[in-house]
Amino acid sequence: MSASHAHALAHAVGATAEEPKFPLNQWYVAGFAWELKDKPLGRTLLGKPVVLFRTADGKVAALEDRCCHRALPLSSGTLEEQGLRCGYHGLLFDATGQCLEVPGQAKVPTKARVQAYPVQERDQIIWIWFGSASQPQPTIEPPAYEVHSSGEYVFEGGIYHYDAPYQLIHDNLLDLSHLGYVHLRTIGGNASVHMNAQMRVESDDTSVKVVRHMPGSQPPPTYSAAYPFKGKVDRWQEIEFLVSHLRIWTGAVDAGTDALDDPRRGGFHMRGFHGVTPETETTSHYFWTMATNPESNVEEVKAKVVEQTALTFDEDKVVIEAQYKNMLGFGPRPMVDIHVDVGANRARKIIERLRLASA
Amino acid sequence: MSASHAHALAHAVGATAEEPKFPLNQWYVAGFAWELKDKPLGRTLLGKPVVLFRTADGKVAALEDRCCHRALPLSSGTLEEQGLRCGYHGLLFDATGQCLEVPGQAKVPTKARVQAYPVQERDQIIWIWFGSASQPQPTIEPPAYEVHSSGEYVFEGGIYHYDAPYQLIHDNLLDLSHLGYVHLRTIGGNASVHMNAQMRVESDDTSVKVVRHMPGSQPPPTYSAAYPFKGKVDRWQEIEFLVSHLRIWTGAVDAGTDALDDPRRGGFHMRGFHGVTPETETTSHYFWTMATNPESNVEEVKAKVVEQTALTFDEDKVVIEAQYKNMLGFGPRPMVDIHVDVGANRARKIIERLRLASA
Amino acid sequence: MSASHAHALAHAVGATAEEPKFPLNQWYVAGFAWELKDKPLGRTLLGKPVVLFRTADGKVAALEDRCCHRALPLSSGTLEEQGLRCGYHGLLFDATGQCLEVPGQAKVPTKARVQAYPVQERDQIIWIWFGSASQPQPTIEPPAYEVHSSGEYVFEGGIYHYDAPYQLIHDNLLDLSHLGYVHLRTIGGNASVHMNAQMRVESDDTSVKVVRHMPGSQPPPTYSAAYPFKGKVDRWQEIEFLVSHLRIWTGAVDAGTDALDDPRRGGFHMRGFHGVTPETETTSHYFWTMATNPESNVEEVKAKVVEQTALTFDEDKVVIEAQYKNMLGFGPRPMVDIHVDVGANRARKIIERLRLASA
Questions:
Q1: Is A13's pLDDT higher than 60?
Q2: Could you say which DSSP state residue C188 is in?
Q3: DSSP-derived secondary structure for C172-216
Q4: Which of B22, B156, B216, B247 fits as disulfide partner to B240, beta carbons 3.0 to 4.6 Å?
């Protein structure tokens, strides 16, 4: 068993108090822009219950989801011009967590405030900063994601809740060889083609990139349904792991046309955003969008691609949750590594290093 | 965080063995008279599984809900002329817990008996005594509740099961200022009127009384539906906390007519009985009746008042269970007190003192 | 409380690490022959998740239900000519647990294998051996059960999952006096007849036999529905406890005709097989068949007998699960023994001795 796997299981049982459970001093995905309308939204992120909402001027805010009076979740409250009002006794809080009003009494107690979290909306993604004690405020901007805003792509997305730790989702996304067994009916295609694909793995201190090329292969069902390929295709899969999220750019050109390494390659593109945010040590949020570039029938093709993507995510969820349940049932046990694990194992090393470094 | 709140949370995690978990040497509500007909009723009270039943002469009885032979709940058994017969091997027990018969063997083993609890029916409420080791038998009569028997009121009731400790229900009932935020659609009315109501709190060693007057206010929807008020009303709320239950007498007269402090005041009355009995340290039974005094259309008005009352109790249950779930999620944390907490805090002190005194 | 009851409860909370939790070096029922077709079957037995399947030549195989690569249950995989393929990354395992193929890489890692369990199919029952460290391989053949294969009987069966430890099911089956209270509507008949039946208990180191005769009794509903008795009947109940299963041979002849002790007695026969296999220390599998010998309307009578049997098992499940839940609620407490417990208590002594002896 690799050290990081052992750690993941140890965490599931009970972690030490001193070490952070997740890498801190990071922007994590808290949600999507379109989730925040006229109601507050409660969501537990990195073990902390948070209420997300928009202020009257449209800015996003994030507070600890607990009224300082009697602990009701503030996400049960209502939005007003000045902020968020608790649904029990009506205490009113602004975006900084300051209590502005205690109904029925003139003076607001000085201790009446709740913690606020740094939060930013960028390219339709809402990012939240979980800092360490020594670095509570963000030191960098949240990541850009131009795919959402460049106009080159149409996209849609969704959110999954996983009864499994977040790193099992990383493992899954960093190793697309499972497509041939888990996603046979959609984006999978021939299993042995996937398993025997040319693979290149690069990494640095905070990212891993896995590139796989499958030249001269049969287009899988989703591809054929979305794009008028003439016959065999040259497929690529580019997976970038970036601690808080993964960017997966897959696609295909008609076999022997464009160079797969050229980012301006034509053909059919699927660009996936995969925000993987721990809910707790044993459960996760998975925020995804899928963008594509149809040449015609844009809405129809987009709907088809998104539908097929959601189907594969359903399949992954079943597998990953079964995997985690089995890991819990068996307890810590050695695991045998195979060739496709290279990328996932590097990502686990990065997480582990950043986790320990953020104490 | 007040000491009693800290204690409630500590209990949720694991209490010390020596101290009683609840005030003992008290009558608690076990149920209502109409619940006990021709079948035994199993109910856990103060952490103890109890079977309640009526003997052939109509008296109520309460035994430990566990056959002394192989531990089947006696509440799965059947009532006979002589007592309660276990549904597994047929052992027969009388109201004192004595085994009268072991089918198929001549002699009843001397150890074949189960614990009986003192229980009394009074004014349609079934009261059970949980004594301490030094005071196992009741030293006083169970409380009277004439509202059920005087003939001045019509009433109905119900039972809620709460996934929350009983003191959170006390808190809720002792502070009716939440009506303006939680019960806007029924008995609430204007929030700021509630929050700014004149409030008087009195207490002694075993009770707390909170009186709130809201003169010249708008009648809330339930009131208007039940009584032909001419316009604005003078409202009163009288809340009596009595360890095992609360009595809440609310109502209104046409503004400027009767004195609110006069118990013979006219107008519209709602008299609530609220028996709050711990099921366990983290769950509760809530036994309620609502009595009223319609001048005409008695059944119709009663049905409306009871229906509206049940609606508000539904709303409270949602809030209180969400509050407790959040308290568990966050763990012990300070709470900021505000002016409306005076009554609830006094009640917590009484409970704490009686709990420790009943060791 | 008897020592074995105390032990059962201690186990429910947390057993010592050194002692085996169940008697090892035994064949246990893993399933029925007809359960294994073209899909693998996952089932936890004695605390161990196992995948059962048939190889291409029809033989049964049992492996640890966990891929050695990333812990997915192998029971989520698919059957192929050469064995069982994992549903995540496609590792292929044979019936011995050896990994035959890692897709996409030439060499199979030497550590790539999973544990296999000895398993045998006999008389339509699938038996699995759970050995101790010193005796991992079976030393004896699994038990024969000719009732399934002799052609004298027709039979059907089923499987129940119990939220209760397996010994509570033994207790229930070894004491058929409960028929008069639990199974009044089916095979029970008159309660006092059951409780006052002549009973003989014999036992040796690994088995207990309880024989009860009820001469001159009224045939119970199931009997009358299945066989043309002329009036009163002489009934017998023969219960054999054999650690991993019980064989219960009940029936009746017209009163005063055949000798009840003669195994060639005529009349109406019900021969029950009851494989009771611990799933965990607190949950169980109950594999049963019921065989009978109708003189005419064979299928119709069989269907009726099996249906009535299933009804009684439904009733037992309700009682036993309620009993266990109550035992957990009350914690370890003394139990009063009565005369009908003799057989069950001897079985508990056998289990306890074999459990400790298999360390």
A1: no
A2: I
A3: HHH-GGGHHHH-IIIII--HHHHHT-EEEEEE-SS-EEEEEEEEE
A4: B247
C111 close to A (CB below 8 A): yes
SS3 C119: strand
pLDDT at A41 over 90: yes
3-state DSSP assignment of residue A24: coil
**So what's the pLDDT on residue C255?**
94
Whether residue C325 is contained in a domain is answered as yes
Per-residue pLDDT reduced to its tens digit, B203-220: 999 999 999 898 998 888
Q: Which chains touch A (3 or more CB pairs under 8 A)?
A: B, C
- The verdict on a CB contact (< 8 Å) between C177 and B103 is yes
Distance of CA C37 to the CA centre of its chain: 21
The domain that contains B117 carries what CATH number?
Answer: 2.102.10.10
One domain for residues A188 and A55: no
Virtual torsion, Cα B121, B126, B132, B134, nearest 10 deg: 0
Tell me the C-alpha distance between A170 and A274, whole Å: 9
Q: pLDDT band at residue A57, thresholds of 50, 70 and 90?
A: very high
For residue B188, what pLDDT is reported? 58
Q: Does A47 touch chain B (CB under 8 A)?
A: no
pLDDT(A14) > 60: no
Residue C152 lies in a domain: yes
Domain boundary among A99, A130, A161: A130
Q: Do C94 and C228 fall within a single domain?
A: no
Give the other-Cβ count within 10 Å of B299's Cβ. Answer: 9
CA dihedral angle for residue B12, residue B17, residue B18, residue B20, rounded to 10 degrees: 40
Cβ-defined contact of C104 to A336 (cutoff 8 Å): no
A185 touches chain B (CB under 8 A): no
Nearest-CA distance from B115 to chain C in Å?
Answer: 13
* Contacts of B171 by beta carbon, 8 Å cutoff, 6+ apart: A70, B341, B344, B347, B348
Residue pair B88/B72 in contact by the 8 Å Cβ criterion:
yes
Final residue in a domain of this structure, among C103, C130, C157: C130
pLDDT digits (tens, 9 = 90+) for A170-188: 999 998 777 777 776 666 5
- CB spacing of A339 vs C86 below 8 angstroms: no
The answer on C340 and C197 residing in a single domain is: yes
- For residue A238 the two structure tokens come to 């580019």
d(CA B66, CA B72): 6
User: Do residues A240 and A338 both lie within one domain?
Assistant: yes
C269 touches chain A (CB under 8 A): no
* Any domain includes C17: no
Query: What pLDDT, on the 0 to 100 scale, is given for residue A220?
Result: 81
Q: Is A323 on the interface with C (CB under 8 A)?
A: yes
Residue written as token pair 């309700």 = C318
Residue range of the domain that includes A171: 146-357
Q: Are residues B109 and B150 in the same domain?
A: no
Whether residues A151 and A276 fall in one domain: yes
Give me Rg for the CA atoms of chain B. Answer: 22
Return the number of other C-beta atoms located less than 10 Å from residue A266's C-beta.
13
**Which residues of chain C from 60 to 79 reach within 8 Å of chain A, CB to CB?**
65-66, 68-73, 76
> How high is the pLDDT of residue A49?
98
Residues C122 and C151 in one domain: no
Q: Note the Cα C151 to chain centre separation in Å.
A: 22
Would you call A171 an interface residue with chain C, using a CB distance cutoff of 8 Å? Answer: yes
The ranges of chain C with pLDDT < 50 are 1-16
CATH of the domain at B196: 3.90.380.10
* Residue B48, φ and ψ in degrees, nearest 5: -110, 120
pLDDT band at A198 (very low <50, low <70, confident <90, very high): confident
3-state secondary structure of A103: coil
> Does residue B5 fall inside a structural domain?
no
Amino acid identity, residue B26? Answer: Q
Q: Per the structure, how many domains does chain B have?
A: 2
Mean pLDDT of A122-146: 95
Segments of chain B with pLDDT less than 50:
1-16
> Given this model, what pLDDT does residue C195 score?
62
pLDDT at residue B37 in the model: 95
